[in-house]
Design a protein that fits this description.
single chain, 83 residues, alpha+beta, Alpha-Beta Plaits, 3 helices, 4 strands
């Protein structure tokens, strides 16, 4: 069976849209997010992200977005070769 590449997801918080309501922090099942001193979400444990996007779905202001990991070309070649 080929290896599964699991990278670290990228999480973007758009502070100009964010009202620091804390919903994204509360809904994250992996405790990836924490509130900073001003109440804005920060990715404290990004390696634990499972890409469930609950933070994104529950944000009333569309101020948070989760992106898939960027895969290196060598990873793609290795996966194709494993087929």
């Amino acid at each position: 069976m080929p290896d599964v590449v699991r990278g670290i997801y990228r999480l973007e918080v758009y502070r100009r849209l964010c009202k620091a309501c804390g919903l994204c922090v509360a809904w994250c099942p992996q405790d990836v997010l924490e509130s900073d001193a001003d109440g804005y979400p920060v990715a404290a444990r990004l390696a634990q992200c499972i890409n469930c996007k609950l933070c994104e779905r529950h944000c009333p202001d569309l101020a948070i977005e989760v992106f898939p990991p960027e895969i290196e070309v060598t990873d793609v070649a290795r996966l194709l070769h494993a087929r």
